[in-house]
Amino acid sequence: MNKFTIKDLENLSGIKAHTIRIWEQRYTFLKPQRTSTNIRYYSNNELKMLLNISLLNKYGYKISHISRMSNEELREKTLTLTNAQAQQERIVNELIQSMVDVDLDAFERVIDQHILVKGIEKTITYILFPFLERIGILWLTDHINPAQEHLISNIIRQKLIVGIDKASTAHSLLKTTMLLFLPENEHHEIGLLFLQYLLKSRGIKVIYLGANVPVKDLEFVVELKKPDYIYTHLTTVIREFNFDKFINNLKHQLPQSKVIISGLMAQTYEEKELPPNFRFLKSFTEVIDFIDSLS
User: Fold this and answer.
1) What is the CA radius of gyration of the chain?
2) Is 0.85 surpassed by the pTM of this model?
3) Which of 67, 194, 256, 292 has the fewest CB atoms nearer than 10 Å to its CB?
């Protein structure tokens, strides 16, 4: 069983910790346990329940009414939501629920069904990327077992590679070239693969260096291929990773290169004065707008 903090519940459900505490006092659907140091934590079942509750509450159901529903009723009510955004959020919630249960068949089935109906690009854009954004904080805080992370990551990785292989390149490639990489000791390449798909499907040439790339190797390829942009997407990094040092290394080793950084690390980084050739993309919308501006 995973142990989730109230902050985890806030990040995954969108319900503020203050509201969650009020609900605990007024209703009985959340019954956190406490650690030996008196810190409350929540179970898999409570997380799954709160995901359904938050979805219904967001789309019109009063919490006083929701509190009287059984788990099965909660689930059934979420299936009746017709709003397109609500349906998208419900599917992302299903992926989270399958992840915490390590139900790999259910996880893959949800993705495959959406691909069948909506296609690979919409599945990646509206389901997989929002899923990764929401669970990225769990990877950062080690509140997901590494085995769960690897199992789920490999399924998503397989879907992305299939999407990349099938991405249309029928139209002529644009002159813009993008080099994609992750820094040394960083191996979470799902976000980077997603970017490769988006770029390739829009006719932008990609040089994919992948994960765990030392700066000296990056410098060698940049000098050899002279890409228009260098792009890294940091979902999460090892504890020893120093973001300021990373930026300074790129600044000094590649002073003429245009560097783009996105992902959770870019969102949470307290920006200092960045070099003029650096740009942070702090949301998925900014990423899409940037890519579309190139194509």
Assistant:
1) 21
2) no
3) 256
